[in-house]
Specification:
The protein is of the alpha/beta class and 506 residues long. 24% of the residues lie in helices and 20% in strands. Strands 1, 2, 3, 4, 5, 6, 7, 8, 11, 12 and 13 form an eleven-stranded mixed β-sheet that branches.
C-alpha cells in the first residue's frame, strides 16, 4: 500500500441528477431505500439547508465546479446544444452542429487540485459542453455526453471514442469510478474522483430500471410524494407526470433509480475500504438541483413551471460530507444556509490551497465545520439563487422571488408556511419587508454579476441553451423558446403556445 499525505486527503465527489433533498432515508423519508447514503450521513455531516445555485442541471454543475454563479459563468439553462457533434441525441433529435466549451477560461477547483499534485478523474454526466474533450484538470474522462436519456444502451465517451453501453447506465457510471480507483490504488499522489450519476433523472417508465429495484416499491404507498389535485397553474411538462397507475409507475422508477445509485455508492465505499484509504478520503454527496414529484402540483424542477419557480423543493439539495475520524460524525447542520457556490472555496480552504480570484466570487468557505470548529453565521443568513430573469433571496425566515421584468413576484413566510403555499407579496403590511429584501437581492447581484453574462438580460425560458450567452455568443441565438417534451410512452410532444403572457393568464 502506498503512503499517503494526511494533509492532502483523497476526495470522492458524488453528484446525482434531480434528487430532491427529501428523497433520502437520513432526511426523514421512510419509503426510499438508501442505506449507503444513510451510512455516509451517519459517519459525517448532513446539511439540511443546502441550496443549488440554479434549479436546473447545467448552471448548477457549472457553479459547483467554478464557484461562480450563473451570471458569472454564462450557463443559464440546461445545455441543449454544444455537447457532441454528429451523434443522435437520445430522446432529443439529431446531434449538434458544433461543440462548445462553455466554461473555457474559467478556473475550476479541479484544475487547482491537478496543479497541486492531484490525479483527477470523472465518470458519468458532464453536460457542460464539448463532451469529447477532457477539461478542467481531468486526466481520466469516462463521460456520458448528454443531459439525459435512456438507462440502457447509452452513449459513453472513453479515450476520445464514442461507444454504446448495453448495461444499466447507473452501474456503468459506478464501474467507471471503480476502474479509476483501481488504477490509482498504489499511487503516492492523492486522487480526486467525480462520480456523476444521471439517476434519478427521468425516464422512469417500465423497462428503464432493473426490475429487482422497481419491485422493492411494489407495495409502496408513496406518501412522501404529495398528490395535488389540478396541479400547479404554471405547470409544464419538464418531466413525465401521471395519476393512478401511471403515477405509481413513475414514482416506482424514480425511487428505484435512487436505490440503484445508492447501490453504486455502496460499491465505491467498499472499494475505498478495500484499498485502505477510506479514513483518508473526503466524501461529498449532493445533487445538482432539487425535484418536485408532485410537490406543489409540479413534476419537475425550476423549469417544471413557466415562469420558472424557486420553491425549496426545486432549489434545496441533499448534502453529505464525511471523512471517518476527521469530519465530525452524525451531525446535522441546521443553522447555516449554504450554497453550491460555497463548495470550491471550502475544498480549497480544507486542503490549504489558494483560492483563485476569491474576492470576486460569491462563495464562502465552511471548512471550519469539517474540522469540528464553529463558523459564524452570515450577517443576514441568506442564500441567493437565479434562473435567467428569475432571482431569489432566502433567509431562515423569509423567501422573496423576483421575476424580471414583469413578475409575478412572491413572498413566503417560511416559519409559519414552510410549504410555501401562501404568497404574501400583495399584503400591505409586508411591503417594507419586500423593499428590504429586494434591496439586498439587487445589491448582492450588482456586486457579483458580470454585466456581459447577466441572466436578466437573456430570454431564458427553461427550454434549453444552445449557444454562448451574452456578448460571447456574437449575436447568435442562445436560448430556445418552444417547449417540447417526451411523454410517458416515449413520444415527442410539442406545444408552442407556452409563452409568458399566455401563461400568466392561465
Amino acid at each position: 500500500m502506498a503512503s499517503r499525505n494526511l494533509d492532502r486527503p483523497n476526495i470522492v465527489f458524488i453528484l446525482t441528477d434531480d434528487q430532491g433533498y427529501w428523497a433520502m432515508g437520513s432526511a426523514g423519508n421512510h419509503e426510499v431505500i438508501t442505506p449507503n447514503l444513510d451510512r455516509i450521513a451517519a459517519m459525517g455531516l448532513r446539511f439540511e439547508s443546502f441550496f443549488c445555485a440554479s434549479p436546473v442541471c447545467s448552471p448548477a454543475r457549472a457553479s459547483i465546479l467554478t464557484g461562480r454563479m450563473p451570471s458569472q459563468h454564462g450557463v443559464h439553462d440546461w445545455l441543449r446544444k454544444g455537447n457532441l457533434v454528429g451523434e443522435k441525441t437520445p430522446g432529443l433529435g439529431w446531434g449538434d452542429d458544433r461543440e462548445i466549451e462553455y466554461l473555457k477560461g474559467m478556473p475550476a477547483y479541479t484544475e487547482v487540485l491537478a496543479e497541486n499534485g492531484y490525479t483527477c478523474g470523472i465518470s458519468g454526466k458532464w453536460h457542460l459542453g464539448d463532451s469529447k474533450k477532457p477539461q478542467k484538470g481531468f486526466s481520466y474522462w469516462h463521460i456520458f455526453p448528454y443531459g439525459g436519456g435512456d438507462y440502457y444502451n447509452a452513449y459513453f465517451i472513453r479515450d476520445g471514442k464514442i461507444e454504446r453501453e448495453p448495461g444499466y447506465l447507473t452501474d456503468e457510471i459506478t464501474a467507471g469510478g471503480l476502474r479509476f480507483l483501481d488504477a490509482h490504488a498504489e499511487d503516492e499522489a492523492p486522487f480526486y474522483l467525480s462520480v456523476h450519476y444521471t439517476a434519478p433523472h427521468s425516464p422512469w417508465r417500465a423497462g428503464q430500471h432493473p426490475q429487482e429495484l422497481v419491485d422493492l416499491y411494489k407495495h409502496c404507498p408513496f406518501d412522501t410524494c404529495p398528490e395535488v389535485p389540478g396541479g400547479h397553474p404554471w405547470q409544464i411538462n419538464s418531466a413525465p407526470r401521471g395519476t393512478g397507475d401511471a403515477r405509481r409507475e413513475l414514482l416506482s422508477g424514480y425511487y428505484a433509480a435512487i436505490t440503484g445509485l445508492d447501490r453504486g455508492v455502496g460499491q465505491l465505499l467498499e472499494k475505498l475500504e478495500a484499498m485502505g484509504v477510506l479514513e483518508n478520503t473526503l466524501i461529498l454527496f449532493t445533487s445538482d438541483n432539487g425535484m418536485n414529484m408532485g410537490h406543489h402540483g409540479i413534476w419537475g424542477k425550476g423549469n417544471g413551471t413557466f415562469p420558472q419557480n424557486m420553491y425549496d423543493t426545486s432549489v434545496k439539495v441533499p448534502m453529505l460530507i464525511a471523512r471517518p475520524d476527521t469530519v465530525p460524525q452524525g451531525i446535522v447542520g441546521t443553522d447555516h444556509l449554504l450554497s453550491h457556490y460555497d463548495i470550491m472555496p471550502t475544498l480549497l480552504d480544507y486542503l490549504g490551497l489558494e483560492h483563485p480570484a476569491a474576492s470576486s466570487l460569491p462563495g464562502r468557505s465552511f471548512a471550519p465545520l469539517l474540522r469540528g470548529e464553529s463558523l459564524p453565521l452570515r450577517e443576514h443568513v441568506v442564500v441567493f439563487d437565479e434562473y435567467g430573469p428569475v432571482r431569489m433571496i432566502r433567509t431562515r425566515e423569509w423567501k422573496y422571488v423576483h421575476r424580471y421584468p414583469y413578475g409575478p413576484n412572491e413572498l413566503y413566510d417560511l416559519v409559519n408556511d414552510p410549504g410555501e403555499e401562501h404568497n404574501l407579496i400583495d399584503e400591505a403590511s409586508r411591503q417594507g419587508l419586500v423593499v428590504a429584501l429586494k434591496r439586498d437581492l439587487e445589491t448582492w447581484f450588482v456586486r457579483y454579476t458580470d454585466p456581459d453574462l447577466d441572466g436578466t438580460k437573456e430570454p431564458v425560458t427553461g427550454k434549453g441553451q444552445v449557444d454562448l450567452a451574452g456578448v460571447a455568443g456574437r449575436g447568435r441565438h442562445a436560448f430556445d423558446a418552444d417547449w417540447w417534451y417526451i411523454d410517458e410512452d416515449g413520444t415527442r410532444r410539442e406545444d408552442k403556445a407556452w409563452f409568458f403572457g399566455e401563461i400568466l393568464e392561465k
